[in-house]
Write a structure and sequence with these properties.
With about 260 residues, the chain is of the alpha/beta class. It is about 35% helix and about 20% strand. The chain has 2 domains: about 130 residues, NAD(P)-binding Rossmann-like Domain (Rossmann fold, 3-Layer(aba) Sandwich), CATH 3.40.50.720; about 120 residues, NAD(P)-binding Rossmann-like Domain (Rossmann fold, 3-Layer(aba) Sandwich), CATH 3.40.50.720. Helix 3 crosses helix 4.
Length: about 260
Amino acid sequence: MQNQEKCYENVWILSGTSDGPEIANRLLELNYSVFASVLTYKAGQAYIENPKLHIITGKLNNKDEIINFIKKNKIKCVVDATHPFAEIISKNLNNACKEINKPLLLFERKSLIDNTKNFFYIDDLKDINNVDLENKNILLAIGSRFLKDTANYYKDCKANVFTRVLPTHGSITKAFGSCIKNSNIAILEPSKIGQGILEKKLCDFWEIDYVLCRESGSYSQKNWESIVSESKMKLFLVKRPKVKNDYSYSFDQYHNLINHIIIKY
């Protein structure tokens, strides 16, 4: 049990909607004050209302902004639970916390991919090169940031390109601004209950041969693993970047992260 003198310490969490709300809830139950940074207003809605929870919306542009935020809000420790491929913010967090000697904790779920003949690790979004791509149907489930460039690449490889994007203004704009046919674009939220029913029906309807996604450890990845393992499709997973290996403390279970915060901060 947390003692009285450890109450109300300020913890800053940077995360999406997968892990941030759960980490925040557990800390709030222990009487911590929690600052949660999210990119969009919609992401902030995944968090509960609580007088000790402060939602900060928007992008942090550089190391100095991070340092100023930590000092202004008297942050005791920082939790990086951002997407495994969010390399820029993680690098800035790491540099900022080192400069002012502030504890930075990494939370990153394990990617427990099963060893099956349908799954393949690749190093880059454009590394599907050991299979026949001509006239094959490839589904890009990679987010929208690199969608245009990746779609162009596989179109040049003579593949038929499809995509699933999130229902956000930015994602939709980038999808329809790419070379992908409008009829080959699906807008939907990944299923969080592990069944991936909509994704499966989408693959069946489009007669998908290959699925490309990133090794995030998220429910989206788990959905694709489940769908592909029961089909003739092939799943190509882009390996996580190694930028986040430079952390003093890293966790892949909520209770281990929370226990560390209770004991140390």
